[in-house]
Write a structure and sequence with these properties.
- The complex is a heterodimer of chains A (322) and B (326).
- Chain A has 322 residues and is mainly alpha-helical.
- In chain A, 66% of the residues lie in helices and 0% in strands.
- In chain A, helix 6 packs across helix 9 and helix 9 packs parallel to helix 12.
- The longest helix of chain A has 37 residues.
- The termini of chain A are far apart.
- Chain B is α/β, with parallel strands linked by helices and 326 residues long.
- The chains are: A mainly alpha (322), B alpha/beta (326).
- Chains A and B meet through helix 8 of A and helix 10, strand 7, helix 13 and strand 8 of B.
- Chain B: Methyltransferase required for the conversion of 2-polyprenyl-6-methoxy-1,4-benzoquinol (DDMQH2) to 2-polyprenyl-3-methyl-6-methoxy-1,4-benzoquinol (DMQH2).
- Chain B: Component of a multi-subunit COQ enzyme complex, composed of at least COQ3, COQ4, COQ5, COQ6, COQ7 and COQ9. Interacts with PYURF; the interaction is direct, stabilizes COQ5 protein and associates PYURF with COQ enzyme complex.
Chain lengths: 322, 326
């Protein structure tokens, strides 16, 4: 019964979906809402989650209501009213219009929010950075590869800053993935745990290597990050990256060490980045040896600090005894 | 004789009475103005002869289009001078702000609806020309010894097909005539076209333009939602809709100064410079009948635009709305 209901639903949907290009963009909101609702139904029928679809195949309105709730977290915040249950699909996060959809070729595509579309444009823009630098022209070229007009760059109120921050966030998430993967390997016993100094060294090197494709234009990106309105965001990204590295290095300290460790690593990272900018050795060998030296310095400082501490204490004890 | 005198007196009393009550209640009427026409529509006798507002008057919709046409036919010759006089030259700042927010990339196609005398189109072409010059200078500076790729790029003629173009569309031939004369005197002709067309039914194919602008024109359109739908139709995916229009001033002090200036000074300036009191009375009344920033933003979103945002200029006297077709 359930399968024949689903079959019926998908059959109905196919009929509607078969003519998306014929849907006149000038048709009323209700019509559009229905078109989107139909696509949502198809989404449901295509998904391989029997429990949810069984409960939702009962009535059409509950179908998209539940699906709407399931993807609540991605809803664009700018849609004003979210109340009418009769036409919830119309308030859904936007969907690229039909001609753009035809270009991508898939009808059952997930709805995407404006933020997702923006991040797709920025990702596409990255390949034009060597040509145009970190600028609106690169974003315009990226938008055009996605089939959007260059006027859509107006969505990025921060201009080039948006592009650079997007790239930084992307690099950070890549780094976190790599570190998490390594951590899992160690947990499973498939890899040896590294010493802290080596771990830090490799993490910073991995992260800085992500800049190599854009190293020519990286000074421009750094100057954009230093603009006053970008400083809060760039500091946020930097501090979260340093925090991640220390977390995966095994740091669980809860005292002053938390701050000193992160401050030290921030210093190492920033200075190494600057050295990398004007490094012309093959495969940036000079940069990595600079990094080695800095980490060695920190290790030496830490061990000599410990020595001073331990040498201090015996005197104290003597003083107390006498 | 006595009867005609009585008629005249009655009409004078009615006019002055209407002026006083309506100007005083102008702001209060604004909130109900959007629902007004639809209520009138329900009560009107003939199906096709619905009524709408023409300034503070109520007229049928066909009548409104005709009267708006006549207004702009009358003011066309003195339009630019009046703009400068009424706004004390600030309208130039508003239009420049529109271009800055737009930030068009070279190769963009602009459709300026209700563009009349071509102010926006001229600024657009100038902006793009400066952008291209800046890009060329940057390219020349960075590559002192051009690589093989740069040389091959210079030889390629791809740029020709992507020249920026501005199309000025207006329903009023007189305004377009004035605009063409201005273009000739400025020596601007490349990439500029003049088209007669109705904003509610544009004579263009779908997905043609990168940017659609309508500056100080949309409040004269009888069916604003139709104009917005047409804008959505002719824009390419990713295209931008931008609308510059007089809007609601929130600050009470500024608002009272603005109201006094609008109703006392502007028709007088209109009479002195252009010899047309009534057209400028219509102008200031139509500003009061137009929906405020948030309502208009809602209308744009209803038409199907995304990332709709508005900027208040000069404290809300003018609002710049922007939306994207995604």
């Amino acid at each position: 019964k359930q399968s024949c209901l689903m079959g019926f639903a998908s059959h109905k949907v196919l009929k509607i979906v078969a003519a998306p290009s014929a849907v006149n963009p000038q048709c009323s909101n209700l019509n559009r809402g229905f078109h989107r609702a139909a696509l949502r139904l198809q989404d449901e029928s295509k998904s391989d989650k029997p429990p949810s679809s069984s409960s939702s195949s009962s009535s059409s309105s509950t179908t998209y209501h539940e699906h709407y709730q399931a993807t609540e977290h991605d809803t664009a915040a700018e849609a004003s009213q979210h109340d009418s249950a009769s036409d919830p699909a119309a308030e859904q996060p936007e969907r690229p219009n039909t001609s753009y959809q035809d270009q991508s070729g898939e009808h059952g595509e997930e709805y995407e929010t404006e933020e997702q579309l923006q991040s797709r444009i920025l990702t596409a823009a990255l390949e034009f950075v060597p040509l145009h630098g970190w600028s609106m022209e690169a974003i315009a070229a990226g938008a055009e590869t996605l089939g959007l007009s260059s006027a859509s760059t107006g969505m990025f109120y921060n201009g080039a800053g948006d592009l650079v921050l997007h790239f930084i966030a992307h690099c950070n998430s890549q780094l976190t993935e790599i570190l998490a993967e390594q951590h899992k390997q160690v947990q499973l016993g498939q890899a040896e745990p590294k010493k802290t100094a080596d771990f830090l060294r490799e993490a910073v090197e991995t992260r800085l290597r992500m800049y190599i494709p854009y190293i020519e234009t990286w000074p421009q990106a750094m100057s954009i990050l230093l603009l006053p309105h970008n400083i809060p965001d760039s500091l946020k990204h930097l501090s979260s990256m340093v925090d991640d590295i220390w977390y995966y290095a095994g740091d669980r300290s809860t005292d002053m060490n938390w701050y000193t460790k992160r401050a030290v690593l921030t210093g190492i990272y920033n200075t190494t980045e600057l050295v990398m900018l004007q490094d012309s050795s093959p495969d940036f060998q000079d940069t990595w040896s600079f990094l080695d030296n800095r980490i060695q310095d920190v290790v030496n400082m830490a061990s000599s600090a410990k020595q001073v501490e331990s040498r201090k204490n015996p005197n104290l004890i003597c003083g107390l005894e006498t | 004789m006595a009867a005609s005198m009585r008629l005249l007196v009655r009409r004078a009393v009615r006019l002055s009475h209407r002026n006083i009550t309506l100007t005083a209640a102008g702001a209060a009427a604004r909130s109900g103005c959007c629902r007004g026409p639809s209520v009138c529509r329900c009560f009107s006798d003939e199906a096709e002869d619905r009524s709408t507002h023409f300034g503070f008057e109520t007229v049928s919709e066909t009548e409104k289009a005709k009267r708006v046409y006549k207004v702009f036919e009358n003011v066309a010759q003195k339009y630019d001078i009046m703009n400068d006089a009424m706004s004390l030259g600030i309208h130039r700042v508003w239009k420049d702000a529109l271009l800055h927010v737009m930030h068009p990339q070279p190769g963009a196609q602009l459709l300026d609806v209700a563009g009349g005398t071509g102010d926006i189109a001229f600024r657009f072409l100038e902006y793009i020309r400066l952008q291209e010059e800046r890009q060329k200078r940057r390219a020349a500076r960075s590559s002192q010894t051009p690589s093989w790729q740069d040389i091959s790029n210079n030889y390629s003629t791809e740029d020709e097909s992507r020249e920026s173009r501005a199309v000025v569309c207006d329903i009023n031939k007189e305004m377009l005539k004035v605009g063409k004369q201005k273009a000739d005197s400025l020596g601007v002709s490349a990439g500029l076209s003049w088209v007669v067309g109705d904003a509610e039914e544009l004579p263009f194919d779908d997905d043609q333009f990168d940017i659609y602008t309508i500056a100080f024109g949309i409040r004269n359109v009888t069916h604003i939602d139709q104009a917005l739908q047409e804008a959505l139709r002719v824009l390419k995916p990713g295209g931008r809709f931008m609308c510059l229009e007089f809007s609601k001033v929130n600050n009470p002090i500024l608002s009272s100064i603005y109201d006094a200036y609008s109703f006392q000074m502007i028709p007088v300036i209109g009479e002195v410079i252009a010899g047309d009191w009534k057209s400028y009375q219509y102008l200031v009344e139509s500003i009061r009948k137009f929906p405020n920033q948030e309502e208009f933003k809602g209308m744009i979103e209803d038409a199907g635009f995304y990332c709709v945002k508005y900027y208040n200029l000069t404290g809300g006297v003018v609002a710049l709305h922007s939306g994207f077709k995604l």
